Amino acid sequence: MKIATFNVNGIKTRLQHLLQWLDQEQPDVACLQELKALDEGFPAAEIRAAGYQAIWKGQRSWNGVAILARGTEPVEVRRELPGDPGDDHSRYIEAAVNGVVIACLYLPNGNPQPGPKFDYKLAWFDRLLQHARTLADCGHPVVMAGDYNVVPTDFDIYNPKSWRKDALLQPESRERYAQLLEQGWTDALRHQYPDEPIYTFWDYFRQHWQRNAGLRIDHLLLNQQAAPGLRAAGVDTWVRDLEKASDHAPTWVELELQAAPARKRPSAMAARSRRS
């Protein structure tokens, strides 16, 4: 089962890129962020024609999340992150697909910091930590996928010095990400590539893509029921090389899961990262 996350940075602008990627890479599940479109502006017909069913939660001009499933309909579980009924940002959606719980999230950026945007980021992260503990212990395979807007360590960025004051690298952000891992979640991409620089985001400015000056901020976290099934992970960097591309590249994992939650120890894992 191939599960991917992709911050499209505007689904209307990047629709053809999305459809090309779906056709070429054939993920079973795709979590999308930054739709930047209202619910009625979501291209459901085009996505159905590509062989995918979808649930989504849009918002004008920014935010917006969706879960796409190939050949089946995702069963919606919730449309918001618990803990703050007054939060109207479209940043979280959750569904079940073929026995796997999929949490699609777009964590707040938090810039500029310090300030109210960073405070909101940390408060949202605290809510995620609370809900993630529930998901971790639910007894089913769970994948929390999305744009976390956190660079976990200095190894996950081309040059930490130039970003040291950014909200993505602040100790408070990194500490909360580490707390997720302490709950038992596996950072799939880093697990597969423990010693290799690997990025998922390249800023539009100063030729960051051309210089491979990237950051790793798009993550797929696996709970203890999903992690033993991890077989591969990678980044579809060719998508970032398209004309007028999103500044993110799709990031994915391949899982081999039994019908019931797997209890066996992790086995040997194949690693691959394709570029067309």
Q: What this model shows, in words?
A:
- With 276 residues, the chain is an alpha+beta fold.
- It has helices spanning 15-25, 44-49, 116-136, 171-182, 188-192; strands at 2-7, 29-33, 52-57, 65-70, 75-78, 92-97, 100-106, 142-147, 186-187, 218-222, 230-235, 251-255.
- It has a six-stranded mixed β-sheet with strand order 3-4-2-1-12-11.
- The longest helix is centred in the middle third of the chain and has 21 residues, at 116-136.
- Mean pLDDT is 94; it is low at 260-276.
- The record marks 248 as: Interaction with DNA substrate.
- The record marks 149 as: Transition state stabilizer.
- Its cofactor is Mg(2+); Mn(2+).
- GO terms for molecular function: double-stranded DNA 3'-5' DNA exonuclease activity; metal ion binding.
Spatial order of strands in the largest sheet: 3-4-2-1-12-11
The CATH homologous superfamily is called: Endonuclease/exonuclease/phosphatase
Strand tally: 12
Largest sheet: 6 strands, mixed
What does the average pLDDT come to?
A: 94
Number of DSSP helical runs: 5
Q: Categorize the overall geometry.
A: globular
- What pattern of helices and strands is seen along the backbone? EHEHEEEEEHEHEHEEE
Distance between the termini: 21 Å
Q: In the CATH hierarchy, what is the architecture at level 2?
A: 4-Layer Sandwich
Strand content: 15-25%
CATH fold node name: Deoxyribonuclease I, Chain A
Instruction: Note poorly predicted spans.
Output: 260-276
CATH class: Alpha Beta
What value does the Rg take, in angstroms? 17 Å
Derived from helix and strand composition plus strand pairing, the structural class reads: alpha+beta
Number of domains: 1
InterPro entries: AP_endonuc_1, Endo/exonu/phosph_ase_sf, Endo/exonuclease/phosphatase, ExoIII-like
GO biological process, one term: DNA repair
Site (Important for catalytic activity): 218
Protein name: Exodeoxyribonuclease III
